[in-house]
Specification:
By secondary structure, the chain is mainly β. Helix content is 11%, strand content 43%. Strand 7 and strand 8 form a beta hairpin. The radius of gyration is 15 Å and the shape is globular.
């Protein structure tokens, strides 16, 4: 499995009940596609981008947890972001055909998100960062912090701290 580190520093964590920090005037994001939708997370919350390995299904896991995959020597939950955000079905390739995973972390919580077309959006000027307007559905709006117009698509900036906490499997 080929892996590339995105950020060597440990991301700062915050409690999920705290307001997300405001989107900064200059922002660096990890952007990726899930189906036809474009997402981004703060690069500080991205541990690495890797080729996906086999996914082992988990009995009785919620539908948004596809199973576990090995990232390095660790077993990490694989999160179906489209299913969790209740996005409409897409004609794009299924997640099991995703060429990459983005490993996100917040505190002790980690998740691998299968995706396509990963890129780093560096030093975005504040004029490109807008309040969320196009996020559809209550669940999606709950985690969308901002939107960025990129060429022919709108990229939704996700509050990954709140999303990982909400997607967590309770024991």
């Amino acid at each position: 499995m080929s892996e590339s580190k995105v950020s060597p520093s440990e991301p700062p964590s915050r409690r999920v009940d705290q307001e997300p920090p405001p989107v900064q005037a200059s922002l660096t994001l990890t952007s990726f596609m899930v189906g036809a939708a474009s997402f981004a997370v703060d690069v500080r919350d991205t541990l690495q981008v890797a080729e996906p390995g086999p996914v082992t299904p988990l009995p009785r896991a919620p539908a948004h947890i596809l199973g576990l995959t090995l990232v390095g020597s660790r077993a990490v939950a694989v999160l179906d972001l489209a299913r969790f955000l209740e996005l409409p079905e897409s004609d794009e390739p299924p997640l099991d055909a995703a060429p990459r995973i983005v490993l996100c972390k917040s505190g002790a919580l980690e998740a691998a998100i299968p995706c396509q077309r990963v890129e780093i959006l560096a030093d975005l000027p504040d004029k490109e960062v807008m309040p969320p307007r196009l996020a559809e559905g209550d669940r999606f709006r709950r985690f969308c912090r901002a939107e960025i117009q990129r060429d022919d698509r709108v990229v939704s900036v996700i509050d990954i701290v709140a999303l990982l906490e909400a997607a967590r499997v309770q024991r």
